Amino acid sequence: MNTATKAVTTQPWAGLPIMAWLGRLGYPLIGLMTVVIVWEMIAGKIPGIPTPLATLQAAITLFQDPFYRNGPNDVGIGWNVLASLWRVGVGFGLAALVGIPAGFIIGRYAPIRKMTAPVISLLRPVSPLAWLPLGLLMFRAAEPAAIWAIFICSIWPMIINTADGVARVPADYLNIARVLNLSERKVLTSILLPSVLPYVLTGVRLSIGTAWLVIVAAEMLTGGTGIGFWLWDEWNNLNVQHIIIAIFIIGLVGLLLDAALLALARRFAFTEE
Questions:
Q1: Buried b / exposed e across 180-206, counting CB within 10 Å, b at 16+?
Q2: Residues β-bridged to residue 75
Q3: Weakest mean pLDDT among 34-38, 184-188, 256-260
Q4: Which of 214, 205, 186, 203 is nearest to 255 (CA)?
Q5: Whole-angstrom distance, CA of residue 206 vs CA of residue 165
Q6: pLDDT band at 162, cuts 50/70/90?
Q7: H or E, element range at 177
Q8: For a Cys staple, 142 with which of 91, 151, 164, 222, CB 3.0–4.6 Å?
Q9: More confident site: 139 or 71
């Protein structure tokens, strides 16, 4: 085989059927183009809805200076996104510090599991925004109240998935630990944690998605900075182009967060295998 032939056969697309590339790139592009076409049709029928081209031009102008500051409540879109991510990070981190250990305890000890089951069943379906007024009452400020709402909505998936994972650990593993007279710490690090880690990561992934959904609504109610407040402020200014841009930003950030945690979950799943 000559050098030219080798150069051709070592290309990443060599040997791949056209349908494989169509599935990887073509179908997603077709889906996006369909959304744009439908959007263009709706914009032509409903007054006030901007066209995709007009929205793209507004986005280009908006992102030319995403980190400007003209006052405490007049900042660029970049600062608003970072403010929302910071609130989500703090509330989510606190929920992980409380929820994951609580899930281990609930799943490990049957009496505690039976005691907490009705409490979790009662509180878990409550909308996180229903807790926001209580947060305002307790903390007397919008910032910690929004973090409180994130904490509440993030903690349940972590508790439930972690407890379920601990409860599903094979009894034979724990019986062997008793025979070997392993300490509770050794049981946790050598048996429970490796077995439960996929469940924990599933709970974390569900929690971060819920947290990002809730922070937008919470910021609409509490004000200040953040992507939710920015979206609501643009609605008050009747700037529909920026509202649509905010929707795409919220979706993109949520997609990136989910993709990062999915990659983390796959990494640990591969390690375990």
A1: eebeeeebeeebbeebbbebbbbbbbb
A2: 69
A3: 184-188
A4: 205
A5: 15
A6: very high
A7: helix 171-179
A8: 222
A9: 139
